[in-house]
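User: My advisor, Dr. K., asked me to get a structural model of this assembly before our group meeting. I'm new to this, so sorry if the format is off. These are the inputs:
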Amino acid sequence: MTVLDNRVVSTASDEEAADPRDPQVRLAALLDEGSLRLITPEDTSGALAAMGRVEGVPVVAFCNDARTQGGAMGSAGCEHIVHAYDVAVRERVPIIGIWHSGGARIPEGVESLHAVGRVFAAMTKASGVVPQLSVVVGPAAGGAAYGPALTDIVVLADQGRIFVTGPDVVHSVTGEKIDMAGLGGPEPHSKRSGVVHVVAKSEPEALVQARRLAVLLGHQGRTRASEVKEIDFSDLLPESPRRAYDVKPLVKGLLDEPGVELHPKWAPNIVTTLGRMAGRTVGVIANNPMRLGGCLDATSAEKAARFVRMCDAFGVPLVVLVDVPGYLPGVGQEHDGVVRRGAKLLHAFAEASVPRVTLITRKAYGGAYIAMNSRSLGATRVFAWPTAEMGVMGTKAAVRLLKRRQLAAVSEEERPALEERLAAEYEEMTGGLARAMELGVVDEILEPANTRGAIVKVLAQATPARGAHGNIPL
Amino acid sequence: MAEIRAEMVANVWKIIAAEGDTVEEGDTIVILESMKMEIPVLAEDPGVVAQIKVAEGDVVQEGDLIALLDD
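Assistant: The format is fine. Below is the predicted structure of the whole assembly, which you can bring to the meeting.
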């Protein structure tokens, strides 16, 4: 597993305390000033763990010692990490790992592999029990790559690099020439792989993001329905129902202050953001019509499914903003497993126990209507703005299919008018929004200006709950 | 040179940027039409539009080259 140069890069000296790779320096930078208390000895094991606070919220944290064998993970260091997990699970507090490690210690042979495997097992057992965050500040290769990957959220600093095998091995095996950043830096992991949830411009900024996330998940707060300020979202939707727009202002407006968007550049056709609404942590999921028309596809369904399951595991209520023309059609999608990967989103919502509110802002069609936390999957409450349309497909597409003979029988000049008339009849028959209300699949039509209060009221009244499951990295 | 490719099968509805234009990240290059939606194709990085490879009315397949951007 070890692929990096792990010579001893420095030894004890007077300057050691100022070494930015000193794990105690890194842990102190993460935790509230003066709150750090070591829970493992300072030794040559390659890892250090501590308890401390983040904005007053108790957490456990650990960090590789990149000064010793490039932070490589051996038996003793892995014991320290497993101990940190034991403490976090016992205390029911979030655990944050700061990663800078070339992977398993080569000289220890299979002993180090066994030890790294024990860390993975501890992480998996803690999955869904306590929030797990990873901050990757340097190279994290082999076993040190899969460590963060098993956790709930991965934050990558500018110098962070994540890969299973490094550039040298890639080159010797496949002949591909690439540097560490191109292989496993911020660009590939933010846009292509989905390995990283949040990219930060520097190590201090990465630690700040991890602190924000630890507080959001570790201290979720209570919904204070009396303090809701309404925002009029009437101007958000473009006049033409075909026109794209960015959904992010709506997400931002619903939250008290800007939240932390996870995976902003990967599968951007769906937005997943953790933030606070009326004082309480919520997870917001929103189709973004600006990208791919807001269609669901294999990757966005998988991204959203993992987010739903993470929120459910930690009891974070969900707010689902729906504007989706359907699942993305195409050979690429089908062969890419849109059926298998799309099913994950259905499973995630149908399984979820947390309160979850749906708001259909503009359109909800086909299988994507079901997948976006529909009543059928167990939504706590379903709201719709007056502009909302829903159905198996758009009315014109439906009549073109259902009435194709009748349409073919008239001349081309007459056809558009007939199509309009048939579409209106079809609309009346299948009912659109009115029929959805009658069926009980939409509970209430909301004016955009009353949206915040209505959603907060549901969240305040809903019975708190959390799912009894782990958060497998889907 | 950055390539901008179609993410889905669509009709090219409108060309917005012209060759030689300077664009910022998030600027619209062309607007596609598919699923009864207008779908803007955006510049992922700032740059200068070197070439537009499609014309209005064209059908593009997933992965087809739409434009080239000079960094």
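One thing worth pointing out at the meeting: The CA atoms of residues 66 and 327 of chain A lie 45 Å apart.

User: Perfect, thanks a lot.
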